[in-house]
Write a structure and sequence with these properties.
alpha+beta, Phosphorylase Kinase, domain 1, 5-stranded antiparallel beta sheet, 46% helix, 19% strand, binds adenosine-5'-triphosphate, binds magnesium ion
Length: 285
């Protein structure tokens, strides 16, 4: 579901207070009881109900009556809190059009000091189960709602961008809050959707990026033509939340998978061929 800039703008300070209280209390309750919300916000019951009604009408919060009356933050509410914070910090001034939607993220253009990109991470409930196992996001046991898993994903992506930005072409990481990463906008398109003018040169460039990232201790983990962009002159690598450290126990396998995806694309589309062993030897050095 897209983020509604209009809804975000129409929020009043009391709405935000209730939304923030629900967020905080979700660390302790799967469904935050009405009573607890009332005590935390120190609003009257009718005020809390009125605010919750508004938030539910905007699909930012949902409610349950079983086993008791309780409330839960949903993605749009979490997105809204992140936008609120990023706006207050001055990172962004306006939300622009939707430019990409994937399995685990929605991407918007926005206005900061210049045009920027907002990536809203949405590690859904189902993939969260996998994420919990494979990425070690969550402390074992302990109640930790899935909305917060998206924050870990955003933090991880931001960290990779920070580590790499001075060395290879990745978006410049500008800010991060909750499940949202703010980064520079690449004026281009993913390479599955364009024809490269000099595929051999681009191929070399991308392998060079993989090599440098590896030297810096980072393996992308989801590299393919869908996560490489071309701006008319240069390639850029995007979409880093699933990166792993180079010394990860399955590092070599994950790296080989990344490299094979790149080789396959350039072979199928441009007839460039390079044995995987040679490419791996070059990347590992
Ligand atoms: N910095 C950027 N500048 C321009 N466009 C971007 C940028 N980041 C992402 N995009 C666009 O948004 C799309 C989706 O972004 P990204 O690949 O990061 O996430 P995703 O594919 O949705 O995530 P997942 O791999 O979990 O499905 C990209 O294909 C690209 O078109
Ligand atoms: Mg992607």
């Amino acid at each position: 579901m897209p983020v509604s800039a209009e809804n975000v703008r129409s929020l009043q300070p009391y709405d935000i207070r209730v939304l923030m209280a629900v967020e905080r209390l979700m660390r302790r309750y799967r469904w935050v009881p009405l009573d607890v919300l009332r005590q935390t916000t120190r609003f009257s019951e009718s005020e809390v109900r009125y605010r919750l009604g508004r938030l539910m009408a905007m699909d930012m919060v949902k409610s349950s009556t079983v086993p008791y009356e309780g409330y839960q933050l949903v993605f749009a509410g979490y997105d809204t809190l992140a936008l609120h914070t990023l706006t207050r910090r001055g990172t962004i001034r306006a939300l622009g059009p939707l430019i990409g939607e994937g399995k685990e993220a929605v991407v918007y253009e926005a206005l900061g000091f210049g045009p920027v990109v907002l990536k809203f991470h949405r590690v859904g409930q189902r993939s969260f189960q996998t994420a919990r196992r494979s990425r070690g996001y969550m402390p074992d046991g302990g109640h930790f709602p899935w909305v917060f898993a998206s924050t870990s994903s955003a933090k991880r992506e931001f960290e990779a961008l920070e580590r790499l930005v001075d060395e290879i072409r990745v978006p410049v990481p500008l800010d991060q809050n909750r499940n949202v990463v703010v980064m520079s906008l690449i004026e281009g398109t993913t390479i599955n959707r364009c024809t490269l003018p000099d595929p051999a040169e681009s191929f070399e460039q991308v392998l060079g990026f993989v090599e440098t990232a590896f030297r810096l201790g980072v393996i992308h983990g989801d590299l393919s033509e869908f996560n490489i962009m071309f701006d008319g002159e240069e390639c850029w690598v995007i979409d880093w939340p699933q990166w792993v450290e180079a010394d990860h126990p399955n590092g070599e396998e994950i790296l080989a998978h990344d490299v094979a995806n790149v080789l396959n694309h350039f072979e199928k589309k441009y007839g460039l061929s390079c044995p995987l062993e040679d490419a791996m030897a070059r990347v590992i050095g």
